[in-house]
Write a structure and sequence with these properties.
Blueprint lengths: L1 E11 L25 E11 L11 H22 L7 H12 L7 E9 L2 E6 L2 E17 L8 H8 L8 E14 L9 H16 L2 E2 H4 L10 H12 L8 E10 L2 E5 L3
Parallel strand pairs: 5-7
Antiparallel strand pairs: 1-2, 2-3, 3-4, 4-5, 5-6, 6-8, 8-9
Helix pairs in contact: 1-2
């Protein structure tokens, strides 16, 4: 069984005429941005078996068409009925997945609405009563990779420049994925509530710290990105607001290195 994901980018100004504009740059977004509109991405994941001759199980142009013909109207309807701040996101995600199912022959497994470069809301076909809230954060910290049980030479051989006695620093990026129930009104966890907990439990404890010396969790734990992601998980597990559960934590040490942890 294969999974294929396709991201469709579009901008909404509230003007129905947007949908009649030429499609000159669908890579950037269509409808295109006009004035101070709203920019979104909708990532659609479909599952199926590939045709042995074509190698396709679904044509990506069909996903694009389904989002623009059936997904965008759902968003326009939500924005027209209520102010953007009052839209019940849980119900919206349910409606988006339901709208895309039939035109894509029931292959849709997951739909994620990207609201900002750092925040997205996702819903999965296997659990229509909850949504995944994925929010990103940043902290800056220094660390030194060093194992006391190894000799200085062995440490330098294993960790290279990362064993510098004075340490070195990173701008770490953290993504927290929280599974949140959708209530009877279609509402779910407010991202601001998640932000407050992550700030208190993680960012304030790690930001502008030397992990080896300033953070008790690393007193006897080498602060590799693999250990950092586990520590961030332990800092948040059981502490999310609104009954949300921690689904995944991802930590980027650099733009090229990311480690994910989903619990034991």
């Amino acid at each position: 069984m294969l999974e294929l994901s396709r991201t469709v980018r579009f901008c909404l100004s509230g003007d129905p005429a947007d949908l009649g504009t030429p499609r000159h740059n669908t890579f950037s977004a269509w409808p295109a941005m006009r004035g101070l509109g709203r920019y979104y991405e909708l990532a659609v994941t479909c599952r199926g078996e590939a045709d042995p001759q074509t190698g396709y199980f679904i044509n990506i142009t069909q996903i694009d068409w389904a989002v623009r013909e059936h997904g965008i109207p759902v968003l326009l309807g939500a924005l027209a009925d209520e102010s953007a701040a009052e839209v019940p996101v849980g119900r919206l995600m349910h409606d988006l997945l339901a709208a895309l199912g039939p035109p894509l022959s029931g292959t849709v497994q997951r739909v994620a609405l990207v609201l900002t470069p750092f925040l997205q809301i996702a819903i999965e076909k296997q659990d229509m009563h909850s949504v995944l809230l994925l929010q990103q954060y940043e902290f800056s910290a220094a660390h030194r990779l060093h194992v006391p049980a190894l000799s200085d030479e062995e440490n330098r051989e294993v960790f290279g420049k990362c064993n510098n006695p004075a340490g070195h620093g990173h701008n770490y990026r953290v993504e927290v994925a929280a599974r949140c129930a959708v209530d009877e009104h279609g509402r779910s966890l407010d991202p601001a509530a998640l932000d407050a907990v992550v700030d208190t439990e993680v960012i304030q404890k790690l930001d502008h710290k030397h992990l080896n010396t300033d953070v008790p969790e690393f007193a006897r734990l080498n602060p590799s990105v693999e250990h950092i992601v586990r520590v961030v998980w332990s800092m948040l597990a059981g502490k999310l607001p609104g009954g949300a559960t921690l689904e995944e934590v991802r930590v980027w040490e650099t733009g090229k290195t990311v480690c994910a942890y989903r619990g034991e």
